[in-house]
Amino acid sequence: MKISRGMENLFNNQIAMEASASNYYLSMASWSEVTGYEGAASFLYQQADEERQHMLKIVHYLNNLGVQAKIPSIREPASNFSSLESVFKAALKSEQSVTQAINKMVDVAQKEKDHSSYTFLQWFVTEQVQEETKFETILQKFDLIGRDKIAINEIDRQLGAMASQATNAA
């Protein structure tokens, strides 16, 4: 099975995007841990691992087609954040960018009648709906619970619980 050069480039760009997202979450987790947000740190370390798994999923897909995946160098992500809320606003924005890229890939796969890539990408389409919803829900907590120290502590506690649930489910 072969894919077009254009589709191959889109997949390689997505590998770079997933790797970059993984590093970005790692940076967010590190900031959270140093700042005292242990729950957020646990949650964000898991997100970093998840993005790396997404990257590997694409690497294996290309390699299984006989196309060697390009492993990109990654530029240093932002590492200073003004607040826990700003971390999650940045995370949502990052997920929205990934969604746009995935949707573009789906459009190209449809246009080229690349049924294999189209089918492969459907998992990512579903995943991105879940990811955006997850971060939108977290951001809603700032409006619902508040932004004072007690509220932020509660949100951090809830993020830690979400990380624990994900670990137990795995």
From TrEMBL:
<dbReference type="GO" id="GO:0008199">
    <property type="term" value="F:ferric iron binding"/>
</dbReference>
<dbReference type="GO" id="GO:0004322">
    <property type="term" value="F:ferroxidase activity"/>
</dbReference>
<dbReference type="InterPro" id="IPR009078">
    <property type="entry name" value="Ferritin-like_SF"/>
</dbReference>
<dbReference type="Pfam" id="PF00210">
    <property type="entry name" value="Ferritin"/>
</dbReference>
<keyword id="KW-0479">Metal-binding</keyword>
<dbReference type="GO" id="GO:0006879">
    <property type="term" value="P:intracellular iron ion homeostasis"/>
</dbReference>
<keyword id="KW-0408">Iron</keyword>
<keyword id="KW-0409">Iron storage</keyword>
<feature type="domain" description="Ferritin-like diiron">
    <location>
        <begin position="1"/>
        <end position="146"/>
    </location>
</feature>
<dbReference type="GO" id="GO:0042802">
    <property type="term" value="F:identical protein binding"/>
</dbReference>
<dbReference type="InterPro" id="IPR008331">
    <property type="entry name" value="Ferritin_DPS_dom"/>
</dbReference>
<protein>
    <submittedName>
        <fullName>Ferritin-1</fullName>
        <ecNumber>1.16.3.1</ecNumber>
    </submittedName>
</protein>
<dbReference type="InterPro" id="IPR001519">
    <property type="entry name" value="Ferritin"/>
</dbReference>
<dbReference type="InterPro" id="IPR009040">
    <property type="entry name" value="Ferritin-like_diiron"/>
</dbReference>
<dbReference type="InterPro" id="IPR041719">
    <property type="entry name" value="Ferritin_prok"/>
</dbReference>
<dbReference type="InterPro" id="IPR012347">
    <property type="entry name" value="Ferritin-like"/>
</dbReference>
<dbReference type="GO" id="GO:0008198">
    <property type="term" value="F:ferrous iron binding"/>
</dbReference>
<keyword id="KW-0560">Oxidoreductase</keyword>
<dbReference type="GO" id="GO:0006826">
    <property type="term" value="P:iron ion transport"/>
</dbReference>
<dbReference type="GO" id="GO:0005737">
    <property type="term" value="C:cytoplasm"/>
</dbReference>
